Amino acid sequence: MKELLALSTHQKDLTLVEEGALGPLLEEFSLAGVELLPLKEVPEGIRPFVCGVHLPFQPVWLPFWLEDRRYLREVFPGETNLARFFGGERPEDFLNLLKGWFERALSLKPAYLVFHVSHCGLEEVFSLRFRYDKKTVLQAVAEVLNAALEGFPAQRSLLLFENLWWPGLTLLEDWEAEYFWDRLRVPFPTGLLLDTGHLLNASYLLRQPSMFRGPVYPAQALSLLFEVLSKKPPSLRELIKGVHLNFSPRADLFFSDEEGKRRCLAASDPLFRFRLARERVLSLDPHFPFYGVDLRPFLDLLAPDFLVHELRFSSLADLRPKLRLQKECLSDHGS
Q1: What is the mean pLDDT of the segment spanning 197-226?
Q2: What domains appear along the chain, each with residue ranges and CATH number?
Q3: Which InterPro entries match (predicted)?
Q4: Three-state SS at 36
Q5: CA–CA separation, 95 vs 87, rounded Å?
Q6: Which is nearest to 224 in space by CA: 303, 129, 290?
């Protein structure tokens, strides 16, 4: 199993590269490299460390693909912004945008790629009531990927599909993966990328409001992960080739925020709408480290090829203690 660090090309992350701290940090924590989210041009200094590439994600894509112009005018930031978010005005432009994402990711020669199988509208981030059901999203994602990757040569890089708590691949129901794979025709070997925080969030959303009255602790979260995954058929667990390891404690926030939704839709500035939605997502999904628990039996259950420490941090001084806490959960110190 290769242990990796999740990194992006956001400037705060690139500071680790620019200051020469990335290599020593990886060595200090026995990490084999990084899983990179390329938001912009990838500097040469980071390329040697890339093992995986997390493809960008546009969560509000399905109304554009289905050409639901009324929704785009009323809820999304408006048709004048379509090119910025989808590469153009037509569904075909979105396919070209996706194709470009894949081409740039493959130029880094990664062992694997990660793609979100999900959809969530801006207002749904707050309401947690969703416009499209799982089957609609799963079918549409397969359709889009099949079209965008048509004609691509066969690839050696794995294409791993990540779970979220929004409609799509949540991993809460066993049929989701089979339904998706039956419709998928892509030139990649494929598998699942389990995000532990996202699976926790999906479980919180399913069980609210009856079960959780406050934040959960790591031991509770780990027990919940075991409960969900130990019941999965072995064939599904075998699809899990990678794990995004992070702790999501805010079970108590998974309720409808109607005031937040009202503020979002009342804003005239499209980027401000996105900012409000992003702040809500960050509160639900903080990407904290696990601490004080033994994660080894959990990882033995899954036996992933890649374990990615996907932690939110503001600086090297912030990241190092978080990494140390989570690494201790993988050793005798975590028991």
Answers
A1: 88
A2: 2-334 (3.20.20)
A3: Xyl_isomerase-like_sf
A4: strand
A5: 9
A6: 290
Contact 5, 17 (CB under 8 A): no
Residues 27, 141: Cα–Cα separation, whole Å: 38
Above pLDDT 90, what percent of the chain? 84
Q: In angstroms, rounded to a whole number, what is the distance separating the alpha carbons of residues 158 and 168?
A: 20
CA separation for the pair 295, 328 (Å, rounded): 9
Q: Would you state the structure tokens that stand for residue 288, as one six-digit string?
A: 């904290």
E-strand stretches of 156-210: 158-162, 190-195
**Whose CA is closest to 57, among 247, 228, 222, 278?**
278
Which residue do the tokens 């066969």 mark?
Answer: 154
SS3 for 288?
Answer: strand
Count of helix runs (H) and strand runs (E) in the chain: 16, 8
- Token reading at 88: 């153009």
Q: What is the pTM of this model?
A: 0.96
CB 144 within 8 A of CB 98: yes
pLDDT averaged over every residue in the chain: 94
Q: Distance between CA atoms of 50 and 33, rounded to whole angstroms?
A: 6
Distances (CA, A) of 258 to 78, 252, 261, 277, 329: 22, 16, 5, 12, 38
In this prediction, residue 335 carries a pLDDT of 45
Distance from C-alpha of 199 to C-alpha of 222, rounded to nearest angstrom = 11
